Amino acid sequence: MNLVVLLLFLAAGELSGWMAVTLAAGAVLAELVRRLGGYESLRAARWSFLPLAFSSSGSPLYIWIDPARTAASAAEEMSPAYAAAVEGLATPGMLVLMLAAIIVGAAIGAWLGSPLWKRGQARIYIRKA
C-alpha cells in the first residue's frame, strides 16, 4: 500500500525525501514485525500497525525539520496568514502531540482491524482443511 502512495505522490510531483524515507521504512518495519512475530499471529499483526502508521509522518515532519522552508512554501501556495499559522505550529509540544496521535491512531487501527484479521484467518484454516 505504501508503494502505491509513494508512486502517486511521485506522479503528482509532491514526493519529498523525508516522505519517501518514512513510507519505505514504515512498510519495511511493519513487514519485519509480521515476519518476526509470525504471519499467523494476531499480536504481530497488531504491532505491525505502529510502524505502518508512522510511515505517513514524513510530510508533516518538514514543519519541524525546516520550518522556514515550510513557511515559505506555504506562503507561495496559500495566504501569508496560513504560513504564519504553520510556522506557529513548529513547537516541540506539537511534535510530541503529532507522535502521540500517530500511536493512538495505530492502536485504534489495530483494534478495528482485529475482527477482520480473525475472519481472514478463519477462512485460511477452512481452506487448508
What's a quick, concise take on this entry?
By secondary structure, this protein is mainly α. Helices cover 85% and strands 0% of the residues.
What does the secondary structure layout of this molecule look like, with pairings?
Elements: H1 2-12, H2 17-37, H3 42-54, H4 58-65, H5 67-77, H6 80-88, H7 92-128
Helix pairs in contact: 1-2, 2-3, 2-4, 3-7, 4-5, 5-6
Task: Tell me what the structure shows.
This protein is mainly α and 129 residues long. It has one domain (2-128). The protein is 85% helix and 0% strand. The chain contains seven helices and no strands. The chain has helices at 2-12, 17-37, 42-54, 58-65, 67-77, 80-88, 92-128. Helix 1 (2-12) packs antiparallel against helix 2 and helix 5 packs antiparallel against helix 6. The longest helix is centred in the C-terminal third of the chain and has 37 residues, at 92-128.
